[in-house]
Amino acid sequence: MSIFISVTKYIRIGIGDKNDNPPYFDQSLYEAEVNEDEDIQHTVITVTAKDKDESSRIRYEITQGNMGGAFAVKNETGAIYVAGPLDYESRKEYKLRLVASDNLNENHTTVVIHIKDVNDNPPIFDRPTYETQITEEDDRNLPKKVLQVTATDGDRDRTPDIVYFLTGQGVDDQDPANSKFAINTTTGEIYVLKPLDRDLPHGRSQWRFTVFAEDEGGNGLVGYADVLVNLKDINDNAPFFPYAIYTGNVTENGTAGMTVMTMTATDYDDPNEGTNARLKYSIEQNQVNENGELIFTIDEETGVISTAVCCLDRETNPEYTIKVVAMDGGGLKGTNVFKGR
């Protein structure tokens, strides 16, 4: 008799996963935005890929579009972060090609990062220094426009909202009623408010102040330029002699041509502006001797007074008084007296 014995064995067969699937992204395009002044290492966006192969380890790399190395990606996480300086005015967006690889297969997606403009550029004037000339003591049609300044916002795509203001010579911030200059805060037009004196002792030939332009309606960044206002001289000052009277000694029995005294006048007008301060001297009231001859003469350029005759006699006339005139090129004059003994 035959006996059959049946034996059952269970064999576990493991099927190894083959790396036969490439990584894939859920989207073909990702978009993000970042401020142009954002800090280095700031994470902008994290983009991750998937892989149907269970054992795959995905690594990420930016392969195109990363101008200047502005961004970088963390290889293991797909986090894209700021790696270099950003400037909206230079580049408004970056179109990055992000590759995901499992060491055998790879795939890619596009990441567009938009750069957001921030107020990081102050207004810029069209020139560093503005200069103009006006006539001194001109009181017509005040306040009068003397020039206009113009600034533009360095942040090109921002709505321009620039406010102008002044500081410096002729500008009284504490009491504007004392100011000699003012500016239209919107247009940049600068006005002179009062007649200005150019000449000494209290005037000035040039006014120098600073114009500022502030963006964001006066709450942002500030740019500046210098303003020079030069005063054109007019003949508004007569010559004058600094002393009330001049006295000197006349040598008795001296020869003709002997120097007696130098009388010099002052004119506060500009000596470099025409003939306003160019002086000529003359004797308006002279003395004569017994022969009817003029006793004194004066050099019209230097004001040096000399004897015109000889042999003056003290016993005949112990004192001589003459009147000297200094006249400028514009016809204004000053007078004084010389007494010689």
UniProtKB/TrEMBL annotation:
GO terms for MF: beta-catenin binding; cadherin binding; calcium ion binding
Entry's Gene Ontology BP terms: cell migration; homophilic cell adhesion via plasma membrane adhesion molecules; neuron projection development
Subcellular location: Membrane
Keyword Repeat: yes
Gene Ontology terms: cellular component: catenin complex
Domain Cadherin: 26-125, 126-241, 242-330
Keywords, sorted A to Z: Calcium, Membrane, Repeat
Entry protein name: Neural-cadherin
Lineage, opening ranks: Eukaryota, Metazoa, Ecdysozoa, Arthropoda, Chelicerata
